[in-house]
Amino acid sequence: MAHRSTAASLLVSLRPDQWHKNLIVFAALIFAVKLLDPAALARATAAFLIFCAVSSVVYLINDVGDREQDRLHPVKRLRPIAAGDLSAATAIGLAVGMGVAALGAAFALQPAFGVAAAAYLVLMVVYTSALKHLVVLDVMAIALGFVLRAAAGGLVIDVHISNWLLVCTMLGALFLGLAKRRHEITLLAAGAKGHRKILEEYDTYLLDQMIGVVAAATMVAYIIYCASPETHALFGTEWLVLTTPFPIYGLFRYLYLVHRKDGGGNPSDLLLKDRSLLACVLLWGVTAVTIIYRPFGSF
Hints:
- With about 300 residues, the protein is mainly α.
- It is built from 15 helices and no strands.
- The protein has helices at about 5-15, 25-30, 40-65, 65-70, 80-85, 90-110, 110-130, 135-155, 165-190, 190-195, 205-225, 230-235, 245-260, 265-275, 275-295.
- Helix 3 (about 40-65) runs parallel beside helix 7 (about 110-130), helix 6 (about 90-110) packs antiparallel against helix 7 and helix 13 (about 245-260) packs antiparallel against helix 15 (about 275-295).
- The longest helix has 28 residues, at about 40-65.
């Protein structure tokens, strides 16, 4: 395999293809009915860019720490640090520089947002060094990272953060994290324990039980949110309940891909490659925005 240049290796290690995970910071903007507020939109966009930088810092630190284990993985061994295309010292130097710059920008934008961004970075560093080796806490830490990003999206525009937003984010992220663990076990088979020691603590039966519980809880939480009087009062309509078929189908489709098509290893790739899943997410987004903002008048 041809070696990448240092610049190309740095770019790949920042994982810009994963930055769309930070779009969760826009959730508070949309559900606080601030999407059409130029100032709020600008601040949320700045928050998104800052979290892209912070998440890249985490990826660099993670790849340095996991480089030996990644070399045993059929896909991760191609990462620049594991492949030897980028030195650990260069990666850590870039991570420190980006981290300082990103957190400085976060605190300058909004102090409370800066605290959330710093908390996310600390959590992910602790996850990389310790929590990912603790059963259940490993996936919970990843899910909490998504919750912090969602909360940060509300803090940066100074709006109330709905408990329902945080609960649904936590449950959805747990669902994806557990499905990813299951895929790792089935993909690596007997070599799973050698790649990541925590996989010794899981098996497909246990993960299927956890996934079933979390999937059901996610659906129930979202349906209650859409049907609650609090939501009706906030948006001035009861029609948000019409969006519930989309997450139900999305969860079932994802489970189908995990169990019948051996998917789930990379939720982002699965979303972009599976047309049915992508269409479901897009239709949910369009339907939710249309109901909340009613561009065609009241209904």
